[in-house]
Automatic annotation (TrEMBL):
Location(s), subcellular: Cell membrane
Identification of the protein by name: Maltose ABC transporter permease
Record has Ribosomal protein as a keyword: no
Taxonomy of the source species: Bacteria, Bacillati, Bacillota, Bacilli, Bacillales
Record's keyword terms, sorted: Cell membrane, Membrane, Transmembrane, Transmembrane helix, Transport
Predominant localisation class: membrane
Length: 298
């Protein structure tokens, strides 16, 4: 099919625009990667943009060898795994129960849940509530308050309601109870949607720094993103180097002069971002399929 001059020009404009958009997204990532792989003292001179001028892995050795970051990574991994599993389980159970139109007080319950999406009590009442529940300075402050998402529940409920009623009715005729229906029909058919919601939930837990910064004062309970937030606002490198013993070990290696706060920041950013970037491609097909199915069924 022959394209007109206007169509050719429009296609060229679209390609150029998308190319510039890709560059604007990829370039900051490449810049941070180059700084993190460059000797800190050399990077401080400037001129490092896309690739390291003096290649080194020492910035990553300092970051990954720091006990605070190691513990923060464990907290982040645990909260991501536990939080995602709990979130999906509670969302699935609530959505399955509320998908029954004959459920007593169903509309009232949906109304209460909808109110939580539209209005919030504010940060101070929420903090007081967490304090009264003994969740302040606790690992469970990352899990319990985020275990239920009204938005995820409504999306999941609309998906379940899109499953043909004949499947559920035939199972009920055969004597299947709700638990059996959930396990044998709902969950197998909902895998794409569960994968999509699971990805949303996991990314939220992995990237969240707010809870660790405001609800936790114990440094042994902060996630890696909260540590990164503290690092980005730090004025000296002692935040990363930690104890005097660690500083002495680095000094003995005669490498301390080659490390700067900026190079450590970039290495920490890469260390915190790469795991979720590596997981996403494996879930992308489920994510796209789940979103498309949810848009059609909803």
């Amino acid at each position: 099919m022959k394209l007109s001059t206007g169509e050719k020009v429009s296609q060229i404009v679209i390609v150029v625009f998308l190319g510039l958009l890709c560059v604007s997204v990829i370039y900051p990532f490449m810049y941070m990667l180059a700084i993190s792989l460059n000797v800190g003292s050399d990077a401080a001179k400037g001129g490092v943009y896309l690739w390291p001028r003096e290649f080194t892995l020492y910035n990553y050795e300092v970051v990954l060898g720091n006990s605070v970051i190691q513990h923060a990574y464990i907290i982040t991994i645990l909260r991501t795994i536990i939080g995602t599993i709990c979130g999906l389980f509670i969302t699935l159970i609530a959505a399955f129960g509320l998908s029954y139109r004959a459920l007593p007080l169903r509309n009232t319950l949906l109304g209460y849940i909808l109110v939580t999406m539209l209005f919030s009590g504010g940060l101070i009442p929420f903090y007081i509530q967490l304090y009264n529940l003994n969740l302040i300075n606790s690992f469970w402050v990352y899990i319990i308050p985020t275990a239920f998402s009204a938005w995820n529940m409504f999306v999941m409920m609309k998906f379940i309601q899109g499953i043909p009623d004949a499947l559920i009715e035939s199972a009920e005729i055969d004597g299947a109870n709700p638990v059996r229906i959930l396990y044998s029909i709902i969950i197998p058919l909902s895998k794409p949607m569960l994968a999509a919601l699971g990805l949303f939930t996991a990314v939220m837990h992995w990237n969240d720094w707010f809870a660790g910064a405001f609800y936790v004062s114990d440094q042994t309970l902060i996630p890696v993103q909260t540590f990164l937030q503290q690092l980005l606002s730090a004025q000296d490198i002692s935040v990363v180097l930690g104890s005097n013993n660690n500083q002495e070990a680095i000094a003995r290696g005669s490498m301390l002069s080659n490390v700067t706060l900026m190079s450590i920041k970039m290495a920490t950013v890469m260390v915190s971002a790469l795991p979720i970037l590596c997981v996403y491609p494996f879930l992308q097909k489920y994510f796209v399929k789940g979103v498309l199915i949810g848009s059609v069924k909803g």
